[in-house]
């Protein structure tokens, strides 16, 4: 749509600011089950103009209401009462979460029009597979998957609202702090149902620097001093965590994980239904989010391929939501980006190329690392590559099925395969912290499983007879790749030389080699 194209060209910072402002004008209402949309909006309009709204299901019906003016919230809050303490006593923290019940529900039994509820999670894979079989090409299957899984406008609003509600707490201690989402909530690669990663930021940059230059004195606040930044982070998160635990409406299962490499507070935010991870500002994580945002906006094929590969990896147990030795979604996304940089002509630019396009305002040096790259999307030339998605999918499996992981590493700065600086099974350079491998956790068996699955998938796409499969009502194209291999009906397995046969062939080859070697030795004697 045209609207989408125009939003696509905004810079990352513009989009974030816009969404944060939106969230500050927003409230969340738990509605009665027989809610009349018109009456609700009519009532709310008495407090100010309602700019947008939607309903969703989460332990009952909820409405997210965005007012045009922030002052409307104060007006509404003045009209809202404190719950009567019957069996519970309440913590009198007045938030932007309300419960509406009908005063005389009897007269309301007529429901004129059913409410439209915005889905906040994606359909199960088995339903997706059935839908995919109705598409007319692998490319359209991939776009279909993207549409089912990507974050909706409504879900993004809900994510920013969750951050804004946490920020209402942090502002009690740190008046100019902000709480911002990072990672998949903002980088255009988030899927419905994923956690919200948020961080607490104290740097209200820019505004202050100019004022400080004036006057004859160097002036600074007296602040508590601690031996390390880490300790400060742990103390702040500990207090905010307790605060959410003790006073936060709907904040449950609060866990403080303060000894982790990156200290964080995990909690469930029941009103929005999100699982949240709160940490203290991580500038490099923000740069990574923005880099992916840029790549995701440059070409529609980028996101379609990433979502497809991630879904494929999840189905085959190559990725897992629990931490461990498997490939993470972030590593997988970086592998897709690298593959797209390697196409001829390239579909996306390398990080070094984006850095060359950067101007003064794009300069970011963080902890000694140069994290500069262009933020204005219009400065990046569109690709001349016109390869369709089905070709890219098959080529992705082909490329990594035959990649020399023993020798080479993946470097997005250069867009080149470079020799591994150290012997990890899978080496993907951290795009910003140049001495780190983002896939250090991956072990050899997991990497081998990935390679085997990629080869098997390339093989299935090659051998496929789409017409025949449609006649036989068998899953075809992408749908065939989203069924765990080896589980499909046995007749198909018989006429398909899959992983097993590859393994056997490998064994035979090595036997032949050994045989040949021993014969040579015998001859040599």
TrEMBL record:
Ranges of residues in domain PAP-associated: 391-423
Names of the cofactor(s): Mn(2+); Mg(2+)
Residue span(s) of domain Poly(A) RNA polymerase mitochondrial-like central palm: 138-296
One MF term in the entry's GO annotations: poly(A) RNA polymerase activity
GO cellular component, one term: mitochondrion
Any single biological process term in GO: RNA 3'-end processing
Record key words, sorted: Magnesium, Metal-binding, Transferase
RL domain ranges (all copies): 11-79
Name of protein: PAPD1 protein
Originating organism: Catharus fuscescens (Veery)
Gene from which this protein is expressed: Mtpap
């Amino acid at each position: 749509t045209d609207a989408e194209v125009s939003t696509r060209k905004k810079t990352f910072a513009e989009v974030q600011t816009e969404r944060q402002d939106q969230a500050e004008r927003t409230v969340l209402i738990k509605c009665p089950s027989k809610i009349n949309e018109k009456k609700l909006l009519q009532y709310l309009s008495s407090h100010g103009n309602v700019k947008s709204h939607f309903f969703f299901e989460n332990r009952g019906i909820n409405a997210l209401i965005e007012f045009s003016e922030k002052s409307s919230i104060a007006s509404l809050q003045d009209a809202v009462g404190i719950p009567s303490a019957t069996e519970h006593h309440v913590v009198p923290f007045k938030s932007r979460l309300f419960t509406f019940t009908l005063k005389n529900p009897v007269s309301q039994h007529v429901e004129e029009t059913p409410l439209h509820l915005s889905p906040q999670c994606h359909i199960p894979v088995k339903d997706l597979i059935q839908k995919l079989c109705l598409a007319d090409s692998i490319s359209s299957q991939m776009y279909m998957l993207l549409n089912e899984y990507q974050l909706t406008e409504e879900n993004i609003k809900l994510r920013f609202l969750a951050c804004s509600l946490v920020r209402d707490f942090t502002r009690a201690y740190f008046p100019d702090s902000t709480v911002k989402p990072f990672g998949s909530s903002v980088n255009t690669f988030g899927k419905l149902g994923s956690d919200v990663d948020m961080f607490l930021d104290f740097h209200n940059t820019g505004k202050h620097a100019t004022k400080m230059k004036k006057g004859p004195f160097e002036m600074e606040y007296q602040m508590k001093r601690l031996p390390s930044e880490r300790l400060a982070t742990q103390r702040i998160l500990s207090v905010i965590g307790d605060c959410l635990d003790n006073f936060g409406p709907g904040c449950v299962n609060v866990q403080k994980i303060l000894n982790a490499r990156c200290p964080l507070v995990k909690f469930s935010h029941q009103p929005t239904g999100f699982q949240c991870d709160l940490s203290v500002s991580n500038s490099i994580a923000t740069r990574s989010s923005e880099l992916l945002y840029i790549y995701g906006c440059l070409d529609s094929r980028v996101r379609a391929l990433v979502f497809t590969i991630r879904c494929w990896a999840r189905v085959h147990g190559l990725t897992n939501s629990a931490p461990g030795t498997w490939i993470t979604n972030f590593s997988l996304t970086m592998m897709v980006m690298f593959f797209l940089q390697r196409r001829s002509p390239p579909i996306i630019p390398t990080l070094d190329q984006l850095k060359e396009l950067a101007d003064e305002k794009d300069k970011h040096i963080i902890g000694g690392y140069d994290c500069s790259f262009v933020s204005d999307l219009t400065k990046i030339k569109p690709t001349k590559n016109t390869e369709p998605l089905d070709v890219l999918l098959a080529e992705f499996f082909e490329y990594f099925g035959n990649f020399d992981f023993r020798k080479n590493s993946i470097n997005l700065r250069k867009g080149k395969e470079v020799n591994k600086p150290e012997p990890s099974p899978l080496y993907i350079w951290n795009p910003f912290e140049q001495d780190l491998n983002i896939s250090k956790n991956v072990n050899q068996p997991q990497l081998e499983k990935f390679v085997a699955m990629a080869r098997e998938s390339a093989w299935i796409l090659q051998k496929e007879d789409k017409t025949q499969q449609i006649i036989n009502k068998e899953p075809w194209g992408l749908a065939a790749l989203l069924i765990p291999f080896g589980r499909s009906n046995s007749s198909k397995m018989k006429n398909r030389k899959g992983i097993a046969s590859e393994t056997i062939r490998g064994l035979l080859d090595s036997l032949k080699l050994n045989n040949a070697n021993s014969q040579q030795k015998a001859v040599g004697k």
